[in-house]
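Hi U.,

Before I forget, here's the chain from the pilot set. I'm dumping it here mostly so it's searchable later in email.
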Amino acid sequence: MADQDELRARTDADGIALPDALREHGVDLDSALDAHSELAGAAAYLELHIEQGPVLESMDLPLGVVLGTFGVERHQVTFRGQAAHAGSTPMDKRRDALAGAARLELEIREIAKRTGDGAVCTMGGVVTKPGIVTSVVETAECLLDQRHLDAAKLAGMLDEAKRASEQYARGRGHRGRVAADLEHRADPLRRRADRARRRVDQGGRRATRTACRAGRCTTQPRLRAPASRR
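Structure:
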């Protein structure tokens, strides 16, 4: 913050002033402003984050390099069937909207698997109407999230999901209609991974050697950041 007086007045729950807390760790509050001059000649910067996913933990590694930021296709898919009495409507006479949504949820896993290269597909929510146990589902609104680092593959994933939705809307046990409304879209953002990797190699070599001294690894894994990392 530019207002140093406000920072000086801040204290923690024990009443210790911020300047005193910083001084215990060898940091002078007012000297922090001098560091801004070093940005004038900076060619790059290193941004560190705790990984949100389980990749590094599963590999027992302390460090990875981000290749880029996922592109996102996020849509609301609505299956429309027909409400009917749950007790008096035979199974083969139903137009159950939830049947289409359930099949789509299973298919998006296969779409991600076929696409590969880190592809992920998630059905984050399903809202049914009328939403009572005594009625066949008339509408099922699904939130679909698809992500990939490659724009062409992301577009292909979306096309597959659309075709599957239309197929399941006409399929057995549903015989309804389907609509898709765009919620959010973000294009993939690639980074110069080779350059970033060299910097991480230089800055994190000691930590990596410690984790890899048993010969478990020789290089940092390349990771993909979620879209919120923009």
